[in-house]
Design goal:
137 residues; alpha+beta; 6-stranded antiparallel beta sheet; 3 helices; elongated
Length: 137
């Protein structure tokens, strides 16, 4: 075997190792990335479908979660919320509950906040840059 062939084999082997290392390190991130956007889309579609008649039910649920978690918590979504593709529920006493479709790189969540006068504000957070107040209208 000539030195040139040995060099080509060595370079090829190193290149294959580098590609395998990058693939192994990046694959979990790519999987999360490709799962992330469908969750964000599902959250946007659901929040856009909410009507004024839906708000009392979500506000009541947030109040129950605030009462049950006085220290605050990041809770896994129960089955009925998983069906909506919600992943987590963040309870941040004394005023805020977030129903989260996507978090990490960006955030998609329905945020319910109890205001100082006892009323509630419901906000659809589509991403870190885009949100819309749903309640009061």
């Amino acid at each position: 075997m000539t030195p040139r062939v040995r060099l080509l084999i060595a370079v090829g082997g190193l290149l294959a190792l580098a590609v395998a290392a990058v693939f192994t390190c990046c694959l979990p991130g790519l999987v999360v990335f490709f799962e992330f956007h469908p969750r964000m889309r599902a959250g946007r579609e659901f929040m856009d479908s909410l009507t004024a008649e839906d708000m009392p039910r979500w506000i009541d649920r947030a109040e129950r979660l605030l009462a049950a978690s006085p220290q605050g918590a990041a809770l896994p979504a129960p089955d009925d919320l998983k069906a909506l593709k919600i992943q987590h529920v963040y309870v941040a006493p004394p005023h805020t509950v977030s129903f989260v479709w996507a978090s990490g790189f960006d955030h998609t969540m329905l945020v319910i906040q109890r205001d100082s006068d006892g009323t509630h504000t419901v906000t659809a957070c589509y991403s870190d840059e885009e949100s819309r107040r749903l309640w009061p209208q």
